Amino acid sequence: MTELNKVALKIISDGKGILAADESNGTMTKRLEAVNVGSTPESRLAFRETLFLSESIGEYIGGVILYDETINQRSSSGELITDMISKSGAIPGIKVDTGAKTLANSDEEKITEGLDGLRERLKKYYKLGARFTKWRGVYIINKNYPSKLAMHTNSHALARYSALVQECGMVPIIEPEVLMDGNHSADDCLSKTSEVIKRCFDELILQKIDLTGIILKPNMILPGNNSSDQISKEEISTKTVKCLKDSVPNEIPGIAFLSGGQSEIEATENLNLINKNNNTEFLMTYSYGRALQQSALKFWSKNINDIKGTQKIFNNRAKMCSLAAQGKWSSELENK
Ligand code: 5MM
């Protein structure tokens, strides 16, 4: 077993998943302003520190993805944020892409940037304590998209990123996200997501990535959020498992889904059924941003000094996700 494989497994084994707290300042500002909190470096840290000091870090959360601002901040007690996370038994990670920009020669699609100077940035993050990283390629979906151009360029970038990250001794999280926006059916999502993931692995293999030392972060197979094709959660789970079984090489240690705008309960219930129907060898867990933080953020925004109350809500959400990652969740457990 390689060191990278060990790190990947430590993050996602035993019902553990990942807290995606890597919102860029633009996204975090939207999240905070939506609950009437001003967005400053201090307020962003105050909320995140509350989560990072929760009992669930280390217990249900095996890895925390940070944003550049956060990994360079010190906690209120003067500690490095990465030390705070490691002490609780979780592994600190860092988002290293610099965002999705307009893709030249495509009218509406995006290409994720951040490769220039990446090797040097990675060394700096490793020194700060990060042991895994994240890069998100984002795809719109409709009759014409994702285009071959978008799949080719984003897969190429994901593979170049992964190679540099493994060279630096860290585990790359590879996130090719097919967005939920649109009126496409779940079967459209299934066929396009399968293609996106297959193209991504073609490129990872070509660029000699050690597949035992990565974590794949895909979307679940869902109908578009404006689609009339509403399917059952059972179907969502079987289509999601089928997609991954058919398009992901067996060597990879595991899959950690993004929540992509699902509610907290939807993302939990879908993950639970995915695990009940998981007929693959892959661990299937969560790497949620919104579906772990939403309720905690809402409560915190009205009770900024109630650290314990905020943590209680976050711990419960993380526990529910962890049960779902083992196929042991039920709606009755939500209100206990
Ligand atoms: C936490 O949000 C990440 C995106 O941040 P920016 O758009 O600000 O760069 C995002 O990549 C996230 O890690 C994944 O999409 C999972 O988050 P959700 O909320 O979809 O579970």
In short:
Helix content is 49%, strand content 15%. It is built from 14 helices and ten strands. The protein is globular and about 50 Å long.
Strands in their spatial order, largest beta sheet: 8-7-6-3-2-1-10-9
Q: Regarding CATH, which class?
A: Alpha Beta
CATH topology: TIM Barrel
Can you give the mean pLDDT?
97
Structural class: alpha/beta
Spans of at least 5 consecutive residues whose pLDDT stays below 50 are none
What is the CATH superfamily label?
A: Aldolase class I
Tell me what portion of residues adopts beta-strand conformation: 15-25%
Number of domains: 1
Folded structure, characterized:
The chain has 336 residues and is α/β, with parallel strands linked by helices. It has 14 helices and ten strands. The protein has one domain (3-335): Aldolase class I (TIM Barrel), CATH 3.20.20. It is 49% helix and 15% strand. Helix 8 packs across helix 9, helix 10 (233-247) crosses helix 11 and helix 12 runs antiparallel to helix 13. The mean pLDDT is 97. Bound molecules: 2-O-methyl-1,6-di-O-phosphono-D-mannitol.
